[in-house]
Amino acid sequence: MTEHFDMIVVGAGISGIGAGVHLKKHCPDRSYMILEGRPNIGGTWDLFRYPGIRSDSDMYTLGFNFKPWTDQKAIADGDSILRYLDETAREYGLYEKIRFGHHVEAAAWDSHTARWTVTARSDGKPVQFTCNFLYMCSGYYRYEAGYTPQFEGAERFRGRIIHPQHWPQDLDYAGKRVVVIGSGATAVTLVPEMAKTAHVTMLQRSPTYMISRPAEDRFANWLRRWLPPMAAYNIVRWRNVAMQQWLFRLARSKPEKLKKRLLGGVRDLLGPGYDVKTHFTPTYNPWEQRLCLVPDDDLFDAIREGRAEVATDHIDRFTETGILLKSGKTLDADIVVTATGLDLLFMAGIDVTLDGRKVDFPKTYGYKGIMFSGVPNLAVAFGYTNASWTLKADLTSEYLCRVLNHMKETGTDTVTPTLVDPNMEAEPWIDFSSGYFQRGLHQFPKQGKTVPWRLNQNYAGDVKMFRHAPVDDGVLRFSKAADASAQREPQAIAAE
């Protein structure tokens, strides 16, 4: 017998664990299961094991809205985040809801029954489940491999080339010459950590904006001594949300002012003799790509103390002993770390069909950034680019619980975002210039010019929309299984 659930959640990372808790709290009478392809919970925080792995957002906003973060450090290491997720899963009894080692490959919708048939692979064999609603909490990148450009001569290099997504736990880099290719969050984490025992060069084609802040939030730690944990957590959470939004608005309205402030902070930390213009001054405006967080000035300390250096140049080719740059300079290396980014993968790359027709997601429009025009009973957790991921994931799960409860109250089986104008002016799913987004955006749906077809990238605005706006807004179409097939716009969803 095929097992059936009211909802299937795909992924037991931070989004999927949060989804399970929200379902238990807000839809206690609904059955659900979480399918996880890996043997453990945690997603990103279980997959990545490179030295110094940590959050690049504060845990007061990366943490869940229902469980306070109580550790001393607001910028937390990967093990601390995994403990937090494990505590959450145990506290809410989620482990009994998770099927580990189930890699989802396909989902097929049947309008007559208003059900998804979900096909997963477990122990090398296909296994199927059915559900009324499918919720993808699988993140946005390919877990099997990160992105590594083709470097000429890489096969000649006598040292080791490593991508952080698959870090060898037996790697001994003490006393070695290390080149880290990249200048994003992973590189900025790796360089100061490895520089504790090795000499490290961060090789970048172009700089990234960086901002330094203490790893511990003194105000938050003080507040917890006087207030209950949840009260203190919420105060700090909203303070940090306000700071994030203020910084983002400043980047959009007065980019030169913010640029001057950010670069001034770097100059203060590296000293007047450092070439900040070459190595830390990007060609784009702040928040056109994500800011890199430097906790406790660790990267700048490593550079100032001579344990690390930055090279801003282009790679010509690898040699037997290192990397030859376009400028003619050579970087000798025993180990090269390619912190060159992620390989984006929309909805875990699963094959989605509606009544036998493959869904062409790039032809759809995103509804509130979580559902898709013409696609029934399907949602995705996709966080903010200008704030912490979990802020949006929590709101998405809460909202879906409202949708499920509305469907129960109205006796409906199907909910479909309905696009009245299929020729609506379109924009990319995400307005972000980072290379890994630009490489993968062709897989993603479009967004429109106005709400609800536009991603707000604004937490306060989304709180109003997801928690307080009517669920039945005239755009979501609710129907029963018998007439579900007549309620969709096949030209928006089907691939020929």
Describe this structure as you would to a colleague.
About 30% of the residues lie in helices and about 20% in strands. With about 500 residues, the protein is an alpha/beta fold. Helix 1 packs parallel to helix 11. It is globular, with a radius of gyration of 24 Å.
Largest sheet: 9 strands, mixed
Q: What quaternary form is this? A: single chain
Structural class, please?
alpha/beta
Range of helix content = 25-40%
Write the CATH fold name of the largest domain: FAD/NAD(P)-binding domain
Q: Report the strand count.
A: 25
End-to-end gap: 33 Å
How many H/I helices?
14
Enzyme class: oxidoreductase
Protein name: Flavin-containing monooxygenase
Family: Belongs to the FAD-binding monooxygenase family.
Keywords: FAD, Flavoprotein, Monooxygenase, Oxidoreductase
